[in-house]
């Protein structure tokens, strides 16, 4: 007995019309008639009274309807249970930081929906510190963030790195000139949440470069930080990867700062002995993150195609000049050795 035939029987009983049932099931009226005829032949009874306009259940059909609905429900339940056991269905709770939400996370979710169509995804966006707490408390299954967990019962899957650059609003007039941290310290500084990796790195950098204490404004929302910097409130170290629109629209610009800022590492973390789904989605996240980085190319560093070309040509010119200088020195050295040797021969 075909469950699809029972589903057809149920819908015809509800709609009482062959055409409407065919439209509901995306099939033809002939297919609906064939399925009902097959069921009637199997059970040896007439299930519907038919006329030109409608189809109504016979007493045997009404008795069969309750059983058909139970069988279809059991079939659906069986399918869900089998899919859950295979690891391709169920619920996964993912925690993610805003820097990833603003870059490649939407594309990752599209891939997850395509790869696991029966999987339910619950997303929590928060800071790394809070996401780590949630993972340790088993409140989420997988986190995409910046700090590897040191405990042995967690897996840390490297995703990619985002270069960090100092950015500001063009209204501050800082572009086109090289600035140092001491000059930046005179402006309001915006950073990620307190005790985060970027915030700690920023404190250390200013402690080395500036004698007086530097006040750092901690903003937990990346969107809020971008808005404040775009409006000229201050300067911030951000990954160009997450401000591509602002850079293209010239509401933000990358500054030429003497001190380099460490890149932002991104990792996927989950429990070692967990369901296989977190590991499989972490693999998809790695592929998506690296594809995103590769697609951005020089823009990942906040460089336009022209700037990247100028930088490459400058590096090539510098390398050529270095090689030429080395070759000249080498030739002079050889010539000097020959002169010394000739003088020695004359003395003898």
From TrEMBL:
Kindly give the SUPFAM superfamilies that the UniProt entry links to this protein. Answer: Periplasmic binding protein-like II (SSF53850), Winged helix' DNA-binding domain (SSF46785)
The alphabetized UniProt keywords are: DNA-binding, Transcription, Transcription regulation
Annotated coiled-coil positions are: none
Q: What GO molecular functions are on record for this protein?
A: DNA-binding transcription factor activity; transcription cis-regulatory region binding
Q: Which residues form the HTH lysR-type domain?
A: 1-58
- Region listing for Disordered, in residue ranges: 307-348
Matching entries from Pfam families are given as: HTH_1, LysR_substrate
- Keyword field contains DNA-binding: yes
- Feature: compositional bias, Low complexity: 311-331
PANTHER family in alphabetical order: HTH-TYPE TRANSCRIPTIONAL REGULATOR, TRANSCRIPTIONAL REGULATORY PROTEIN
Q: What family, per the record?
A: Belongs to the LysR transcriptional regulatory family.
Record's protein name: LysR family transcriptional regulator
- From what organism does this protein derive? Paraburkholderia silviterrae
């Amino acid at each position: 007995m075909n469950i699809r035939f029972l589903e057809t029987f149920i819908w015809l009983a509800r709609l009482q019309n062959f055409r409407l049932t065919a439209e509901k099931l995306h099939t033809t009226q002939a297919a609906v008639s064939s399925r009902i005829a097959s069921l009637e032949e199997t059970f040896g009874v007439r299930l519907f009274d038919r006329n030109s306009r409608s189809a109504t259940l016979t007493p045997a059909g009404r008795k069969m309807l309750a059983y058909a609905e139970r069988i279809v429900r059991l079939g659906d339940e069986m399918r869900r249970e089998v899919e859950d056991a295979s690891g391709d269905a169920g619920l996964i709770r993912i925690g993610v930081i805003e820097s990833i939400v603003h870059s490649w996370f939407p594309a990752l979710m599209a891939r997850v929906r395509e790869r696991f169509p029966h999987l339910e995804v619950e997303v929590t966006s928060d800071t790394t510190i809070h996401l780590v707490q949630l993972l340790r408390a088993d409140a989420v299954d997988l986190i995409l963030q910046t700090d590897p967990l040191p405990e042995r019962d967690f897996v840390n899957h490297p995703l990619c790195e985002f270069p960090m650059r100092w950015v500001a609003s063009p209204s501050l007039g800082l572009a086109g000139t090289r600035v140092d941290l001491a000059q930046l310290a005179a402006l309001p500084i915006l950073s990620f949440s307190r005790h985060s990796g970027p915030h700690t790195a920023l404190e250390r950098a200013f402690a080395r470069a500036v004698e007086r204490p530097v006040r750092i404004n901690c903003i937990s929302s990346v969107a809020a930080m971008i808005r404040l910097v775009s409006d000229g409130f201050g300067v911030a170290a951000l990954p160009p990867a997450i401000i591509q629109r602002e850079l293209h629209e010239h509401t933000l610009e990358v500054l030429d700062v003497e001190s380099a800022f460490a890149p932002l590492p991104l990792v996927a973390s989950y429990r070692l002995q967990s369901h296989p789904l977190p590991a499989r989605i972490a693999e998809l996240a790695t592929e998506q993150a690296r594809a995103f980085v590769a697609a951005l190319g020089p823009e990942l560093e906040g460089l336009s195609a022209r700037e990247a070309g100028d930088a490459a040509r400058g590096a090539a010119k510098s390398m050529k000049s270095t090689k030429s200088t080395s070759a000249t020195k080498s030739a002079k050295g050889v010539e000097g050795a020959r002169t010394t040797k000739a003088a020695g021969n004359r003395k003898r």
